[in-house]
Automatic annotation (TrEMBL), chain A:
GO molecular function: ATP binding; ATP hydrolysis activity
Keyword line: ATP-binding, Nucleotide-binding, Transport
Residues covered by the ABC transporter domain: 22-251
SUPFAM superfamilies: P-loop containing nucleoside triphosphate hydrolases
PROSITE patterns assigned: ABC_TRANSPORTER_1 (PS00211), ABC_TRANSPORTER_2 (PS50893)
Protein's UniProt name: ABC transporter ATP-binding protein
Family recorded in the similarity comment: Belongs to the ABC transporter superfamily.
UniProt xrefs under InterPro entries: AAA+_ATPase, ABC_transporter-like_ATP-bd, ABC_transporter-like_CS, ABC_transporter_ATP-bind, P-loop_NTPase
Functional summary from the UniProt entry: Involved in beta-(1-->2)glucan export. Transmembrane domains (TMD) form a pore in the inner membrane and the ATP-binding domain (NBD) is responsible for energy generation.
Amino acid sequence: MSIMSQTTVLDRTPVRDESLAVRLQDVTVRFPTERGVVTALERVSLTIPSGGFLTLLGPSGCGKSTLLRVVSDLIPATSGQVEVLGTTAAAARARRDIGFVFQDASLLAWRTALENVQLPLEVGGRSKRGGARDARELLALVGLTGWENAYPHELSGGMRQRVAIARALINDPKLLLMDEPFGALDEIKRDRLNEELLRVWEETGATILFVTHSIYEAAFLGQQVMLMAARPGRVREIVPVDLPSPRRVALRETPQFIALAAHLRTVLEAC
Amino acid sequence: MSMPALSSHDASEITSADAEAQAGFAAAARLAAWRRRLLPLAAVIALLVLWELGVMIFKIRPFIAPAPTAVAMTLYGKLGMLLGNLLPTAIEAVAGFLIGNSAAILLATTFVYQRTAEEALFPIAVMFHTIPVMAYAPILVLLLGNGLEAKVAIAALICFFPTLVNMTRGLRSVSSQQMELMRILSATPSEIFFKLRLKSSLPYLFSALKIASATSVIGAIVGEWIGATTGIGALIIQATYNFDSPLLYATIVVGSAFSAAFFAVISWLERYFLKWNVAQTA
Ligand SMILES: Nc1ncnc2c1ncn2[C@@H]1O[C@H](COP(=O)(O)OP(=O)(O)OP(=O)(O)O)[C@@H](O)[C@H]1O
Ligand SMILES: [Mg+2]
């Protein structure tokens, strides 16, 4: 893994496609509940360039998960426009262009690591897309060589999350949505997985939309950090991140990073 | 990856210490396993000896409580007759087990997909469950006659409710994130059922089946009490009326042995199908 991250120093600006991976325009989501209508998202607009990495940061209940659900066609927007990979969210999902990683790994307990990674190939009209990746290679990519036949209960929390990432990558998605995937891990594991995720991002060229509660994670991973405010959930500020690539954990000690994190904290506290 | 390699000296030292620790651990595990098996066996033998001594010392008459040796002699002498009576009971219990559990699994599946069916039928199932088997057994014998059918029906009914409840719970035991995962993968309803719901329900189903393996035998025996000329239940009644306590006890031993074997088969199937289950392997 160290070889990979040292050799792939990508200059991503000129290589990448200029088209947008995600475009939301005035998206509002309301849920009717017993206590009245909850506005989870209020006129949210955002764009993510193809190949970009946007991190979503905000207090609990500000609609981060709801936003991911709208983008992945799990729930409809009450109003506004949603465009994913140049089409509707439903079409992008049906094309298998969207990968999703949940907070708990949501592995199926009766399947080995390898079988879990292969699940997307077995359901939902597997022939729709040819470009499936090799499950063993993906497990190797996330550092799990030798664990192919382990059941989820034999894996640590961090390893399960890696399996979930490999599973999300099996259809070679153009867009990867991650909802607090490392929220339940200790800091050391989280740091390592952050570095690895950046490496996977560079290797696959996918666009990533990543939800987190951690200011440091948001700043370390994102090309852009979107800060949200709650009640109703809305965009507070979108902060571009100008940090050198490839990013290593040591970057967090630099004055540049500390200043960025301080800025994010100020905005977040005002939310 | 960049870790300095251990010197061969260190490495061998660690492996031999490891091997020693491992051997020690294995020996302790073997001892524990033997203890687990031998202690209950010793307790059973001690109880039997006490019982035998008790019968001898207090000169208890055989029809009140037979000595274990008398029971053993009956078992040996009348084994053919006992097994001949076990056969119908076993058939009734196994048939009832299959029918009752299949019906419960089908109804549970319906409940999961049709809330209305659950709301309409579940209270009725609860009501039936509160009726003691001794109360509805004669009704079934009247309805279905004195043959195998009534006993099978009683065994099936007695299995039905626990499996219905467990299976419904099991089929619902999928997390909302697992469901969302399946939706993102555009899984069809039948894929969601077979690849997610059914598999999630297996631990629940097997704990119900283990209960049912014992209760289905009880159901068959109770059915035979009401009207039958063969079977473990009929033999129990006859032996009681004839004050033939050694035969009564021997019959009970044969019935229990069958129950235990049935239970063991289900447990073995559970271990085979639920290798992945933490609760099973731990
Ligand atoms: N299915 C639903 N029905 C009703 N209300 C909902 C539903 N889903 C979300 N909400 C509400 O919408 C708001 C935003 O929820 P959401 O889960 O998107 O927040 P979040 O930012 O992901 O929070 P967290 O950081 O705690 O995960 C919350 O007030 C929540 O109660
Ligand atoms: Mg959330």
